[in-house]
Specification:
The protein is of the alpha+beta class. It has three domains: about 50 residues, no CATH class; about 325 residues, Outer membrane efflux proteins (OEP), CATH 1.20.1600.10; about 200 residues, no CATH class. The chain is built from 17 helices and nine strands. Strand 5 and strand 6 form a beta hairpin. It starts with a helix and ends with a helix.
Length: about 625
């Protein structure tokens, strides 16, 4: 609602001209309003579904009847149609899918916390010495030789995890390891107390690589008298990176999912507009069909009344001896036929009511508010005196510019081209470069061991000294390498690329056909309107003539110059002409609604904005006539 509309509604309420529309609750998820460090780890609050109809129904129901103009029916559908309510979630889903794409892909291979328990650094204590020597103590060694936060790299056209990831693990253990050979430990039961602290920071890049920074601290206290440092602390600081050079290389390839998600967001908007146009078209057709059913029922009721009058007249003529008694049977048959036509017309009207109720409410006839309410269309089918069409070239250009389905097709074609970069890049072999540097540190409390020299003073200390050694890179380890992989036949990747390319060509041909079909559709719609107008004019003229003939034949019968059969025949022809006129009128209205849909101007013609359709809140008030509002 614009500020001007809001001010107008407020003034109307203040002057007693009408109530201000109640604000409907939003269906958009509410993001948590918490501090920035807590917000990423809190779920969004998704409001419950809106199950009740808008208050507009209550303002339009009077004396057990729902009085509707065509615009009121459209407004009710925009606020309450269940298909539109379902479609309103699609743009929201597209926005969250875009956010998901912008985060990149997840990296597997992160070990669980349990794998950190009891780990020690190489060379730290008896267990670390055995691990460094490639020996497992006693066959029951529960000290894991895995390094924490191991990373399994994803090589190929898979987008890296673009959201930075921070992981910390703290593990504490108390282990007892029986020693079959006590030469090194000099104890039969090696008891170890460990504390492991491990922190990593990982970041992926759209170019096709990722970097990891990690720091690990290991504390060990053993009961072995042979440890020259006990307790001891070991620290490890590492920086590593890897990058794809062929397959999975480049921002365009790795960002294709993000680009497609942004395109899908635009496509979703066009699809929602198509859904709104489809619902409005259905409502208008159902509304005017109901209005025509009322006209048809009125005509058949009038015909039944005429048949009853004629039946009574025949009875009088028989009593007077002017006609033969068998003629009464013919008149009675016509009366029964007319009454059956009224019953059939009432059934059709009820069906049209049910159809319209399903379109303009959330639960249709299951809603007790409108279950037993009669719908009274205020607007009637009117045929203008003449139709003015712009030149065909202008109408075709208008349709190609305004049609949301054509715009969505163009975007989908572009999305396929963007996605195809992945399969085209996937044909390349895998070539990646990786490298990193690791710095280690070790320190502990000096312990006198007979026959073993006193440890170097550089290693005597605690966690601070071990950490200092790592950050000064006193004991660095550098590594760099290249990884290459090439399937021998590469049939799967080549087949995927070919399938993708063929699908694009097929889509392009289909879209080209749909673009060309626009001109045919416009021409057919114009011809349909012209034919419908011609049929209506002929049907209206025929109904007028049949009415005059029927009245003339009835007067002749009253004067004794005609027979009941001839009067009944004229009455049947009149009923047929009335039906033809009603059907021709609804055919013209349907053709006009269809032309607006083909030209993509349905919303503009009916003064509908996408903002109103998206929120389910129509600002305009009902335009019922004053005599109906007073009821």
């Amino acid at each position: 609602m614009t500020p001007r509309q809001a001010l107008a509604l407020w003034l109307c309420a203040a002057l007693g001209a009408g109530p201000v529309l109640a604000q409907l609750p939003s269906i958009e998820p509410v993001k948590p309003q918490k501090p920035v460090f807590v917000r990423p780890y809190m779920a969004a609050d998704v409001p419950p579904v809106r199950e009740n109809n808008s208050p507009r129904f209550e303002r339009l129901i009077r004396a057990g009847a729902l009085y509707l103009t065509a615009q009121d029916a459209v407004a009710l559908a925009l606020e309450n149609n269940i298909d539109l309510e379902v479609a309103r979630y699609n743009p929201l889903l597209a926005q969250w899918r875009l956010q998901r794409s912008e985060a990149g892909g997840l990296l597997p291979g992160v070990p669980s916390v349990a794998s950190q328990a009891g780990t020690v650094a190489a060379g730290q204590g008896v267990s670390g010495s055995q691990m460094a020597a490639g020996v497992r103590g006693g066959g029951f060694g529960n000290a894991s030789g895995q390094t924490s936060n191991a990373t399994i790299t994803q090589i190929g056209p898979v987008t890296q995890n673009l959201d930075p990831a921070i992981q910390h693990t703290s593990a504490f253990s108390h282990t007892s390891t029986p020693q079959a050979n006590t030469t090194q430990s000099e104890v039969t039961n090696l008891i170890s107390k460990t504390r492991v602290y491990n922190t990593t920071y990982q970041q992926g890049f759209l170019s096709g690589g990722q970097a990891t920074v990690g720091f690990r601290s290991n504390y060990l206290n053993e009961n072995s008298p042979t440890n020259v440092l006990n307790p001891s602390s070991a620290a490890n600081f590492s920086i590593s990176a890897q990058h794809n050079l062929l397959r999975g290389f480049g921002n365009a390839v790795n960002a294709r999912t993000i680009t497609v998600s942004r395109m899908n967001l635009r496509t979703t908007d066009h699809n929602f507009r198509n859904q709104v146009i489809a619902v409005v078209t259905q409502v208008l057709n159902a509304y005017y069909a109901l209005a025509s059913s009322y006209d048809g029922l009125k005509a058949k009721t009038t015909a039944a009344g005429v048949a009853q009058t004629f039946y009574n007249n025949v009875k009088e003529q028989i009593e007077a001896g002017a006609v033969a008694p068998p003629d009464l049977i013919t008149a009675e048959q016509q009366l029964i036929t007319s009454r059956n036509a009224v019953v059939d017309s009432e059934a059709t009207l009820r069906q049209q009511e049910i159809r319209l109720k399903e379109l303009i409410s959330r639960r249709g006839t299951a809603d007790p508010v409108i279950a037993n309410v009669r719908i009274i269309p205020v607007d009637r089918v009117t045929i203008p005196d003449a139709d003015t069409f712009p030149p065909l070239r202008e109408m075709v250009a208008m349709a190609r510019e305004n049609r949301s389905d054509l715009a969505a097709q163009r975007i989908n074609e572009q999305a396929l081209l963007v996605s195809s970069m992945g399969t085209r890049n996937g044909v390349l072999p895998t070539l990646g470069v990786f490298g990193g540097v690791t710095a280690a540190g070790l320190a502990g409390t000096s312990q006198r061991v007979p026959g073993i020299p006193v440890p170097d003073p550089a290693f005597i200390g605690g966690f601070g000294k071990a950490s200092g050694q790592t950050f000064r890179f006193e004991y660095p380890t550098e590594r760099i390498g290249v990884f290459y992989q090439a399937p021998v036949f590469n049939r799967q990747a080549r087949a995927d690329q070919a399938i993708d390319a063929l699908t694009i060509r097929q889509t392009q041909l289909s879209n080209s056909k749909n673009e060309s079909q626009v001109e045919v559709d416009v021409m057919n719609a114009v011809v349909s309107m012209q034919q419908a107008r011609a049929r209506y004019q002929a049907a209206a003229k025929n109904r007028q003539l049949r009415d005059e003939l029927h009245k003339a034949e009835a007067r002749k019968f009253e004067l004794g110059a005609s027979t009941p059969y001839e009067v009944i025949q004229q009455q049947r022809d009149l009923i047929t002409a009335q039906n033809d006129e009603v059907n021709a009128a609804i055919s013209y209205t349907t053709a006009k609604v269809m032309l607006d849909q083909i030209l993509g101007r349905t919303l503009e013609v009916n003064n509908i904005t996408i903002a109103e359709a998206g929120s389910g809140q129509v600002a305009r008030q009902s335009d019922l006539p004053a005599e109906i509002k007073a009821r």
